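hey team, just a heads up i'm posting the complex here instead of the shared drive bc the drive is being weird again. everything in one block, sequence lines first with there labels, then the predicted structure for the whole assembly after. its two chains so it's a bit long, scroll down
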Amino acid sequence: MAEAAVPTTRPFLCGDALGIDASGRATLIGGRCADCGSETFPRVPVCASCMSENIRAQAMPRVGILYAFSVVHVAAKKWKKPMRIGYVDLPNGARVFTHLDGADLAIGDEVEVGGGTVGEDDEGPITSFVFRKVRR
Amino acid sequence: MKGVSVIGVGMIPFGKYPDTNITDLGWPAVKAAIKDAGIDPRRIRAVYSGTARGGAMVGQRIMGRLGLAGLPIVNVENACSSSSSAMAQGAMAVAAGAYDVVLVIGVEKLTKFGGGTLPLDEDDWEVRLGLTMPALYAMRAQRYMHDYGVSLKDVAGVSVKNRRNGALNPDAQMRKEVTVDEVLASRMIADPFTLLQCCPTGDGAAAIILASSAVAKQLSSDPIEVRASHLTSGRFMSGFRDMTSPEITVRGAREIFEESGLGPEDIDVAEVHDAFSIAELIYYEAFGFCARGEGASLLNSGATGLGGRIPVNPSGGLIAKGHPVGATGAAQVVEIVRQLRGQAGARQVEGAKVGMTHATGGGISGFDHGACSIHIFQR
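-- predicted structure starts here --
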């Protein structure tokens, strides 16, 4: 089970790139080029494949494969440490840079999107999307 | 590239100069290069000055300090490739016949940020979400070790070799040898990188004087030819990319070897961008010094050490010489020119005739790197 996005009055660090789908699950919202079909995350105003500006919001696949990750001990004060970050490859071809949760991660793991707290600053907790290992 | 030669080089020892401003870091390197060339400074027709984080008008500040302003000065920002990109611009201007003598500067003051990882631009999506340069290279290392079954001890061997070289270089920031156990026992920064697998924070400046080869013959008794000069940017890839083989350097290597008619077997000595230990292994492979996945074996064979088949980073590289980012490319040129002239002292690569420099960098979303500039020099 993925955790639902953490409710907060403060916007997610990732802005509207994290949404909730019809069944209440956290979902990444990226972009799909209406002209060439390229899907990217995050959503950007112009397509890097065909320069079209006709980019629609597109829900991303929720599960991907962990390509690489690191457990980071030295980073700006605001980040929760150790900070686990990595790249996740989604089946639609998008690669997502993300925070990760879990001490037993390995390259090649199936990971699923959720929400979580990734740090804290003067304004309170910093929240964003977080991938976790799929438990079966 | 035809008709461009290096006639003078200079640098200040890389290190921490928190009480010196960037102008006063820069001018001594320029003065040293002018003295090395033995020319009247008024022969300089244009200046290309690289800094990544030094702010605006750094070239003007430095030339003004020396009373040499009043000529075309171009300030170049290209992250860790800032002064290697300035070098490419200067060489191109001379090759095009626009100027017969130009000055290239690289200068940076990182101690002003007070330590920690290099500050990156928070406009960038991945940086905003928490990416740091050590973390980016750490992911490369993790994937490389996963794909090729290489141990962390092998990767850490890069730091041991480069610190050994740095101990022989009076211009290096880190001048103490370290053992592989010391490297692995140092403080964890971004798994698998401990502190001693990361380049240090520091300040520095380096300068190069280029001349058309015709003028170089008149002005210099020992000019070094710029055999090839290459600059490119990374390709944006929003999806999968193989982080164990940076396309920007692989493509740059292929193109500069095509341009020069040379191959990896022709390079006698190289300075490559070892910002973190893993990078040097990946670049051995990108330049074809060995096959994919063979970087650690090449290192362990001693081939890339002093006295080996292809010594890499005899200066100590970024890990030991230091990496004041915008100064790095120019300092690599200083080292290779000294090597080709036979002026490298205890770290001299015997009989080196062809040398190469490689500076790449810029951590931005969707790119292996933002910029990469490679140069090949020949005596």
